[in-house]
Every structure is written in C-alpha cells, then in structure tokens.
Amino acid sequence: MSLFIYDSVDELIEKMAEDFTKKVNAAVDDLGECNLVLSGGNSPKRLYELLASYPYKTEIDWDKIYFFFADERCVPFNDPANNGLMIKKALFEPLKIADSRVFYISTMQSPEESARKYSKRIIAHFKDKPIRFNLVLLGLGDNAHTASLFPHTPVLREQKALVSAVYPEKEATPRITLTAPLINEAQAISFFVYGEGKAEAVKQVLEGERNYEQYPAQLIHPEDAPGVERTLQNC
Fold first, then answer.
1. Which residue of 67, 83, 146, 200 lies most exposed, with the fewest beta carbons within 10 A?
2. Distance between CA 84 and CA 67 in Å, rounded?
3. Is the pLDDT at 228 greater than 80, yes or no?
C-alpha cells in the first residue's frame, strides 16, 4: 500500500486526476479497455469535474472505458442523493459518455433484487473472463465506512456475493454496494479522502486494532492478491 498526503484539497484533487489518468491509460494500453468503478458522495465530485475539463478530458480515450459504481442509495435516479445522477452531471454529460458504457445501479426494485440484477450485469459483462476491475475509486466516511460497507452490517461478513443490499441503522435509505471480496480483486484501488472530520477514521483504519466491524474500510486489503496496488491519498 502507498500513502500520499497533500497540503491542500486542490493539490490532492490534481494528483488524483493525474493518478487516475495514468492507471486508466495503462489498462487501455494493456487490455484495450478499462473497467472502472466510481465512488459517489460529496468528496469525488470535484475530481470528476476536473477530469471532465481540459487537459484531462483530452488525455484519456473515454470511449474505451466501462463505468461501474461502488454503491448506490435506494432513491430514484432523479433524486439529488443518487450517485449515478451526480456522476452523470459531473462527468458523463460533459464528456458525452454513451449510456451503453455506463452500468448504473437500478433502484426501481427492492434493494435485494437490485443487488441481484447488478451482480448479473457484472457477470454478463465480463463473460468468461475473471471478474476483476482495473481501478476502483473509493471514499471514506467519518465512521470508517467505504462504498456502503457500514459498521456492524451483515455485508461485512459476505464472502460469496458480488453485490449486496445494506440497511445501515443511521442512514435514511437502504444501500446497494459492491462487496469487499469483489473490490479486493481489483487491479488497483485508490482511496480519496479529505476533511478534518475524517482524520480519526484514517488513523483507525491504518493504525487501529483490526476490527472490521467497527472500521469496515479495513476489509479492503488487496495486498493479499499478487500484483494488486492500493493507494490512499489524503490531505
């Protein structure tokens, strides 16, 4: 694992954009495509807006990327809290990304059915190839959750499912999330973290006792898989 710390949010976002460009282009060069997982929430929005601007928008062959989502709130697509809508406005629309390349998480069904359908779509996309994303972007909550892997939820013990419904006690809506085993299969994982309120969470995830029920982001340990890289970028 690599840890990078920056003096300002602006510097952090710029370095994340550079790292994103490097990793996506490497996947496209090696495989002819990149299977990318994006994180929702407030923190990554500025990153997506930067990527959709010059010069980054000209440095990536966006037509060779397939876009997936780390998690989604169970709200309608037109709800401002919907991750897919936020990323569509910040990234997909400015870059004119075709809908056929975007794997939105549907929230039209029950959370369980939505999770099953998203899992089937992922399996169908990879076909007979290993299900392995080239890059996963993740955030970190002040309670040490990442994606929608919330403290003390059953999904933290999931070992087989690719996607799962989650019912966090303190959240207004259920969630749908990629599971830790699927995320850990990724070729590269980048955590994108800023804000004074998250400093303690970062410390506990990196240096605290191993207690994934309390600090779910500790479940993300792709170093167990050969050739997998994890970076945490913080300010």
1. 200
2. 10
3. no
CA 98 – CA 194 distance, rounded (Å): 31
Q: What is the mean pLDDT of residues 173-182?
A: 97
Distance CA 99, CA 140 (A): 28
Distances (CA, A) of 49 to 7, 37, 160, 184: 21, 16, 35, 27
Range from 80-94, 175-189, 216-230 carrying the lowest mean pLDDT: 216-230
Measured CA to CA, the distance from residue 221 to residue 217 in angstroms comes to 9
- Reading the block at residue 173, the tokens are 């809506």
Yes or no: say if 227 and 187 are a contact pair by the CB < 8 Å rule: yes
Residue pair 234/193 in contact by the 8 Å Cβ criterion = yes
What is the CB neighbour count within 10 angstroms for residue 205? Answer: 22
The 3-class SS string of 104-159 reads CCCCCCCHHHHHHHHHHHHHHHHCCCCCCCCEEEECCCCCCCECCECCCCHHHHCC
> Which tokens in the block code for residue 80?
């401002």
User: How much helix, strand and coil, in percent to the nearest 5, is found in the chain?
Assistant: 40, 20, 40
Q: What is the pLDDT of residue 231?
A: 56
pLDDT in tens, 76-90: 999 999 999 999 999
For 92, phi then psi, to 5°, come to -70, -45
User: CA 122 → CA 37, 119, 215, distances in Å?
Assistant: 11, 5, 27
Total Cβ atoms within 10 A of residue 207: 7
